[in-house]
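REQUEST FORM: STRUCTURE PREDICTION
Request ID: SP-0412
Submitted by: Lab K.M.
Chain count: 1
Length (residues): 402
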Amino acid sequence: MAELTPAKRTWHVFKRNKIAMAGLFFILLTLLVAILGYVIMPDGTPQANNMIIQLSIKKPGSTYTILKLRKAEPVDTVNFFARMFYGQPSFYKEVPVKSYRFVKDAIYADEYIGDEDKPEKKAYNIFEAISGQKPVYKNGMVSYIVNGKKITRPVNEALYRELRTEIIKQNICTKTFWLGTDAYGRDMLSRLLLGTRVSLAVGLMAVIISMLLGVTVGAIAGYFGGWVDAGLSWLMNILWALPALLLVIAISFALGKGLWQIFIAVGMSMWVEVARLVRGQVMGLKQVEYIEAARALGFSNKRIISRHILPNITGPILVLASSNFASAILLEAGLSFLGFGAQPPMPTWGGMIKEHYGYIVMDSAFLAVVPGLAIMLLVYAFNLVTVGLRDAFDIKSQSTRI
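STATUS: Completed
RESULT:
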């Protein structure tokens, strides 16, 4: 076999680990879902927070007929990228109906209230359903608003037939809730998909913060030694003795509740492990011949650390980063379950479990089990990648497998 560079050799070993590759594929799929966000979600409203209270706690696969009534207040249409990242506010109020019929300029609907309740009979003006505004009748003419434009038409049966056709096409649809609905009538699938953003964002930001701080502190302590190492090691040992979840909660109390506070809190709780690893690796490398040669050539300490030591300990750092990513996801879920994470209505997997864990004994266990499975699968995928990276960066393992 042709001589491989260290990076290619590592990738060659890693990709032969089918289980680790499966974990990596699942992570990449989750990342794609998080990036596309609202574009692929059934409920594309901001925070997937479209509530249909009549449809609360519905089983997975439930299908209902929805009558969409145009809202009176104006709603701006956002561009594709704004919709992908922030969602599109709904233009309509959605009403579940059992049946409907048209009589002249009215829609008579039997509104769904519950499986055991009789439908509530209501009537809506077809012009209001389309425009959200009351029409103006005058001298056999009717004026109404469509997309900000005023339209005046003669009142006759032909107009009613045209509007009925338009309403059936645009304002009446069938919705299937593939993972059911939560206690507020929101689509569980949409909130589950959007929750991937929070979990991956917290994991990514926590790993970046912990790596920057941990690598810096660990490299300084391991390279310079002496009182510098003693002082930084004392600080690391103090923080190492504190349970991670309690430390995160304490930092959250100090910073307040919110998403960016979680980024900082989780990142600040994970840097010690990185610093301890880097410190030990640097202490083992700083006495080797090529480092002594770099000192003899007059290279600065900063250059020796950044260009000669850290590149040679990239493997252990990447393995720990992958492990910390999984730990950060678990920490965020725990914080959200305790109420210290991202605040409602932002969907988080831990928050979804908090809202619905009581339904486990009420024949609606899926409300808590589904986000729990999502956390388990994503953490398991990162653990598989961690094991794959550990084997790939093992020099003895590489020499026997290639």
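NOTES: The mean pLDDT is 90.
Reviewed by: T.R.
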